[in-house]
Specification:
16 strands; alpha/beta; two-stranded parallel sheet; TIM Barrel; 12-stranded mixed sheet; single chain
């Protein structure tokens, strides 16, 4: 999908924090709580777009995908909960290209796991044009969708996606999802070919709000390592857009109960990137990812020809030290403690070491 929201602002990791138990700690006289853990499950690398900034741009149109058996997925979700992770994102590729019955079964299995607090699907939105599909997703229990949109015009949208899908069609799909009771937000990756100014973003936000969108994020592009050679030429600093919001009389700056800053015009809230605190582990420092990093608040479950792999951050490294094969034997009921320990290793790499 090209990216998710950016976390910026850096503090050193306090020595007395326990990231596997999510307990608060006292840091410089203030209570500090570790960020919520998030597991992104990449259901497939298949995508019907060819966005030039996306890390999946070379994926084939319809490659085979690795199927999570329902019992296995339930076991995996229980392991996530037991390891302190209660938030799950289904992503890709384009996850809505998967067979409808399998996708709905996957959503039902996750929603049916006790302890999972939040589940959403990240999508380009093209499949939401089918209102019947939206109804199926809602019946399966899906309550949230994040649609990636990086242009405010039909022409710009078709250009950056290299597709014949128009932005107006995506907005109709968002209306379909909203009518089914699914909350829709948009994720806007900044790009020279798409949104790269406050004025352009505001045009898109007006269209999105008219279609039922109530929340939006804008952020610099995600770089997994695959697009590193051209990342600098694709980089758009979100700070300039934030300054545009501050200058505008249409938008007011507010703060959520959790301390997140957002702009609102009474119809849609727009989260401010660069205001959250993230941790830098020793692993992060040794990698020296610098501006290529968007934060470490999620791990990934990734399909491959040999099975599922857990990755402790979004970056792809040659030595694969941040990757952990997920032995399907660990998904059996009697191996629950082994799965929990494996997941704790993932969180330890991302949050502690």
């Amino acid at each position: 999908m090209g990216g998710e929201q950016t976390n910026a602002g850096i503090i050193q990791q306090p020595n007395n924090l326990c990231f596997n138990c999510d307990q608060p700690a006292l840091v410089n006289g203030q209570v500090y709580r570790p960020p919520a853990k998030l597991m992104r499950i990449e259901l497939s690398s298949s995508c019907n777009y060819r966005c030039n900034f996306c890390c999946w741009q070379n994926a084939s149109v319809s490659p085979p995908f690795l199927r999570f058996a329902r019992g296995q997925l339930t076991a995996f979700c229980r392991g996530l909960v037991n390891s302190g992770c209660r938030n799950i994102n289904l992503t890709g590729g384009e996850p809505l290209l998967l067979p409808r019955d399998y996708l709905c079964e996957t959503i039902e299995a996750i929603r049916g796991t006790e302890g999972v607090n939040k589940l959403w699907v990240t999508t380009n939105g093209s499949m939401l044009r089918d209102s019947g599909f939206c109804q199926s997703l809602a019946r399966a229990g899906l309550k949230e969708i994040a649609v990636s949109v990086a242009s405010g015009t039909d022409e710009g949208y078709m250009a950056y996606t290299n597709s014949d899908v128009m932005l107006s069609e995506i907005m109709r799909g968002i209306e379909n999802a909203a009518e089914c009771g699914i909350s829709v937000r948009i994720h806007v990756p900044l790009s020279p070919l798409g949104i790269h100014s406050f004025e352009q973003l505001e045009i898109l936000l007006d269209k999105a709000a008219a279609s039922g969108v109530t929340e939006a994020f804008y952020f610099r592009l995600h770089n997994s390592g695959i697009i590193e050679e051209k990342y600098d030429e694709l980089f758009i600093d979100p700070i300039a857009i934030t300054e545009g919001f501050k200058r505008s009389e249409r938008w007011n700056l507010s703060e959520s109960g959790s301390g997140r800053l957002f702009f609102t015009n009474g119809k849609v809230s727009v989260n401010v990137p660069g205001e959250s605190v993230r941790l830098v582990t020793q692993n992060c420092k040794s990698r020296n990812c610098g501006s290529y990093c968007q934060g470490i608040y999620s791990a990934y479950c990734i399909p491959g020809k040999d099975g599922w792999t857990l990755r402790a951050c979004h970056r792809i490294f040659a030595d694969k030290n941040n990757e952990y094969p997920l032995d399907k034997e660990l998904l059996k009921p009697e191996r629950e403690s082994g799965l929990r320990d494996l997941l704790r290793s993932v969180w330890r790499y991302a949050y502690e070491e």
